[in-house]
Task: structure prediction
Amino acid sequence: MNPAMLNVTPRAKFAPAIRVGALGGIIIVFMGMIGMLETFSKRQIIFGVLDMGHLIIFVVFYLTAYFALKRPHGQVERSQQGRWHGGVAGLVNAASLVVLAIILTILPAIRNVFVNMTPALLELITFEKGLAVGSILLLIAGAGLGAFVGYYFYRPNPILRELLFTISLVLLIGLLQDLLRVTFQYIPFLSAILFETSGLSLFGAALLFAIILGGFEQWRRRGDGWKARYNALPTPKRKQYSRTLFGFLIAVVLLLPWILGLFFSEILVNVGLFVLMGLGLNIVVGFAGLLDLGYVAFFAIGAYTMGVLTTLSPEIAFHPGLNFWIILPFALVISVFGGIVLGVPVLRIRGDYLAIVTLGFGEIIRLLALSDALKPYFGGSRGIEAIPKPFIGPLELIGPQQMYYLVIIGCLIVAFIALRLKNSRLGRAWMAIREDEDVAQSMGIDLVKTKLLAFGIGASFAGIGGAIFASKLGTIYPHSFNLIISINVLALLIIGGMGNIPGVIIGSLVLVGLPELFREFEDYRLLVYGAVLVIMMLAKPEGLLPEARRAMELEEFRHTDDAVPPEGITGTLKNPGQA
Amino acid sequence: MNARNTLVVLSLALVALIAIACAPAFTPPADAVGTLKVGANEPIHLTWMFVVTGEDGTLGVDSRRGIEIAIDDKGGKLLDRAIKLDGQDSGCNAEGGQAAAAKLAADATVVGVIGSSCSSEMRAGGPALSKAGFTIISPSNTAPDLTDPAKRVAGYFRTAHNDTIQGAVAAQFVLTQLKLKNVATIHDGSPYAEGLANVFAANIEKGGGKVVAKEAVSPTDKEFKPVLTKIAAAKPEMLFYPIFISAGSLITKQAKEVPGVDKIPLMAADGTFSGDFYKGAGTAAVGMYQSSPDFSAFAAGYKTFLDKHQKKYNEKPLSAFHAHAYDAANVIFAAIEKVAVKGPDGALYIGRQALRDAVAATKDFNGITGKLTCDPNGDCGAPVIAVYQVTADNVSKATTPEKPFWAPPK
Amino acid sequence: MQKSLATRFTLTDIFIYILGGSIIALVVVGSIATLATGLYGPRQWIDFTITGLTLGSIYSLIALGYTLVYGILRMINFAHSEVFMSGPLTAYFLADAMGKSGYLDENPVLGISLIFILAIAVSTIVAVLVERIAYRPLRGAPRLVPLITAIGASFFLQYAFRGFFGPNFKVYPEMAILKGALVLGDLKMSYIQILVIVAAMLMMLGLNLFVQYSKTGKAMRAVAEDKETAALMGINVDRIIVTTFMLGGALAGAAGVLYALVYTQVQFTMGFVPGIKAFTAAVLGGIGNIPGAMLGGLFLGVVESLGPTLFLEGLQVPAPYQLRDAVAFVMLVLILIFRPAGILGERLTEKKA
Result:
């Protein structure tokens, strides 16, 4: 510490830290006010020691201090004063929680307006120790964590880093306990010592801590040696290793539903269905640049084709009760047809007009399925029941564990097609349209054919997804085909990284799979979803796994100060609303 | 045989002897579906599957509280074991139902599931629960097809009334009490409302009446005057709209402003039987009718239940199916007590099929919703539906009417 | 560009016109058949229209927010529906308190004005915050990026307000001053309906005058025309954009209170449906065009109100009001087929593709 420097202009000096601390304070108070902290505190991370609500408070303290130290261009304040900056930020952050606690104490009636500002919240943020003691604890925790962060960046010693990593990993395991619990179910004694009814047991956490720390330590000491030894191996041997690893990975993928059990197979199947839709929408939006907000329509068309033609329910007027495998290609054809029927009228409509028209199309399909008018054919609000499961020979794909393989095969085929299309003549034509419709046309690209193919092929992928969805669920309702599905597919595409197939998979896992691990927080799912979309677009608009070309374009936008706004839907060049 | 082999054989024999000596003379009960073993220190694991979040969340929370009170009444223990209760949110839709069911079905310690809230959840999730061997009792599924023998999944029961009963009672009320013949119906595109409106319409027509207008709206609509104007043109003598609180209260309010339907009797069903409905509808609700479970016909225990509820949650029940959930929990508790066998190792053995059979054999069970008897299709509810009339007092205090206005003659 | 498309692809053009023609034919046949039943007299049609105009006025006010932002930033501000929701939902607590204390009956005009002021303030703040946090850093990014941000912000705001005030709907107090109706022969309008229609008309007129004649309004048009040139002319583009969001937010807040006065219920989800409808209305009228948004909103309101009866009843479609939104969207497609830039076309700026 250097008191001389502290004395100069303390207020100006700490202004950034105070500002960041206050921002962190707003965030954490907001989370308290909307009831997130209270709800999250019901999930134990380490049983009896730490719950998720408190974890969030500490993580916000930590991050606040980190951002208080962050300087432009990825630099971090690495000086002795770092401690003070971090500490001040943490303190201000904690102080805002203290203010919240005071308000909750003196004005309990605030609950009549802000329904989640409950006494339970007060208990939570004061660690059930009363206002005075709790406030002091909070301030100490905030300032302490902040100062620690400052110190850590000042002297980033490897041991401290290992400790931090280990703690984060243990907490992450506690957070993802559901996933690990099923994986550990085959080793009952291990899961018995690791887990409590909710969260890790204290002993389990300590054990994990020791194991992981040991592992890190080993790696730090010997890792380079291991790497060197591997690199020294002769090439054929190395190839053999990587081939073995690849084979092992395939085996894992194939065995996944049996390792992870029923529930996670269910999630994987849902993720797979969204991958199918994502790949389809990727063609329409990602390749051809046609903004489609009613993509769920084709999913619905596929599902209803499968539903009507295979159901055994006599309530549907026309129910031939055909076989899944006969209808699957038929569902594909019908959804391609649907894609073209939508495509033709909107051929001349561009940009945002297209968005609202496609959105309307999605709603029209749902409303027709729901309507009393078509009830004899589509079942109205009661939907279609008794849709049989598909058979492969004598084998019935009865549950998600069996369905998984169907979805995986579907995804592989579709991904293969998408990949081939991308590098084909057609794919390049799509991208040309995306960049500039008028130029593309003058280069001799047939706009009508190309656009209709994009709509048709995109629709077919969703149609297959819908068909599988119908027979997986066994019963379909019009309510399943909401606008939110279209939005979800679009969002996963963009979060994952548009135009890129692995990106679609990552996007589905993050937006469809991950929330299922936190089922009890359903009330906050869309809130977090919205926040993630915004933060993601601000921080990494190209997505998690961007296509190289797009990343480049976006990189340009981020690093030019006076970027000319690119006005194509996804692309670089101009193309405002209409023709 | 050399010495070494002899040694091996001898030691093997010894091990076998010890094993035989130590093995209990007890054999767990054989069961067609499977036997659940609850270890000596493990709790009995009961689960719920309700919609507890989102806009329909109160429906499921209400039911969950019913179970929690039932557990409290047992002192948290069954056969000297703690009762562990947890559950899954099923979102009141098919996908949510299937995901929740998959999650529950993956847990082999579960003995039974109380749920679901909405019929669509059960249609999609029921097969997985049934396959896992659980006994399933729903407090609030009212769709008739769930207990249709051709469609029912094994192990499924419900303490809720079947929609056919409520629709028939409402129609009977209109025909015999109000003595009206020309009716109009509105549903909101939910399976519950559409089913109820259709059963009502069918019963009216069977009783010699006429359905002059059958309309449908969307639950998110706010402007109902056009549809009411259209209905008014058909000149109905009464209007039946078995929909939910938000749209239901607006229809009530706006009907008073549309000539032609402003003076005719209005009637809704249990989906609107809640204080919020009167807040939304205001004075327009005074004099209208609502069909709902007949709480006054509930057994005396219901009053005590309400007291406990008030004490535990500091508010009135949120929806209509808390009592059914309480009864569902007690039915399953009684069945477990009947079939569980205690082994000498202190473990409990519960035959899954035996448990289902025990629930199916429930007869004249004293529940707070009445005397429960399960029929072979799994309908266990005591079907007591009554019609209530809303008074000015109900509206100003936002409370549901207490005494039925009319009940079907026995 | 459009012409060359038409001359080159006559086959699709024929298809499109056949599609449009058959929709029109269905509409005409349906309408004639409905009128022929004689079930509905002029009184009913007037009722349908007035109801539609009331709803349409609210759509118009929200649509103006979409149109203003679109005209200037060329982005669909999906979070606008939440701007609309935030004001009246917050102001409910004031309205409820004043209703319970009897203040609303004693000083109705002042009371209602206070509700309006609070709602407008909240909506404006939310609109500006969204612009500052979610949109400004993305100025110049490809258009899908701010679109996704807007969708994200919309979800976030919806569930944040749910977290603040709870999921249940809240009921605005009934106000004695707004009860009753004006009756002129067959014409019957409740005071609330009159208030909504008149207030909406005044606000739209005011906005139009503002944009046409005030200095800020002219600057807005300049920015809409060309940001760079406007900046060169000494216009503070960022400030103009913020002003635009404030204007849109204020109009949405006012629309929200009108909505709450007519339909009495407010809830965190209340913005979603009117938001989509208003956006449709903006596109219908020609997005970026202020009179277009007005016209689009009123048209949509009236179509929703009388369309299902007029078009579908005669075609023997059961429960036509279930298909209300479908009718509205079909009308949208129909209009865009014949006028791809909406009824009045884009006009806040004269810029074309």
User: Anything to note?
Assistant: The first helix of chain A runs from residue 3 to 7.
